[in-house]
TrEMBL record:
The keyword Nucleotide-binding does not apply. Keywords: Metal-binding. Residues 32-192 form the Metallo-beta-lactamase domain. This is Metallo-beta-lactamase superfamily. The lineage of its organism: Eukaryota, Metazoa, Ecdysozoa, Arthropoda, Hexapoda. It comes from Nesidiocoris tenuis. Transmembrane segments: none annotated. SMART domains: Lactamase_B (SM00849). It comes from the Eukaryota. Pfam families: Lactamase_B.
Amino acid sequence: MIRSGISAIRRLSSAPGNSSFFFRQLFDHESSTYTYLLGDLVSKECILIDPVLEQVERDKQAVHQTGLNLKFAINTHVHADHITGTGLLKKSTNCKSIISKYSGAKADIYVEDGDNIEFGQFALTVRPTPGHTNGCVTYVLESQKCAFTGDALLIRGCGRTDFQEGDAATLYDSVHAQIFSLPDDFTLYPAHDYKGWTATSVREEKLYNPRLSKSKEQFVEIMKNLNLAYPKKIDVAVPANRVCGIQD
Ligand SMILES: N[C@@H](CCC(=O)N[C@@H](CSS)C(=O)NCC(=O)O)C(=O)O
């Protein structure tokens, strides 16, 4: 597995027969955050999902290398562990920022259930997946049979529910209704991984997720007892992310 800086390049192997689809999964070691670069090599339009402030130069280089133009910098939610790179990207490119209407954060464009975010011939569809935060969404790329789950679903885990607007029962319902309802062979890409995993599938998580494969009552009990330390940057990250990150 390769996952450091700009060398963390992983083509979507399951891309069904569309050679103009471009995909890179990029990793920030400090926050264990995945950023995704998705592009259309014909129109040259591309988007970034969950950029990290400290990795903005890397991300711009990745966009530049491939001759793409950044159309949107998109967040899956208001992150608590790192500052988004969206504000800085907006300053130095022509991109527009996107976040859920229910996030409580500033952005150029607000999205909600069923909205499509188009880049060239491709489009992400928005599915609301609250529970980690109110404004958490999953972006589904139907044509490539994959989805970007943010912190709602992590590989063999899920986002914690003990701060921001966290609610375990809501998260359970979100994942079951909006993610586990996708076809079993859809690839799922999370916003974080702490164990070295890069991607999973709907089928795998339905079978093997140690939290979400349980009953709702068991899940709520598990989430009450995670006993995780608060993210180190929470006090700076949440206020910064509510205003789209650093812009000055
Ligand atoms: N140690 C990290 C924060 C780790 C953490 O709390 N991760 C969150 C997602 S980022 S808010 C989470 O939901 N984790 C779930 C889990 O089961 O690990 C830091 O200090 O930044």
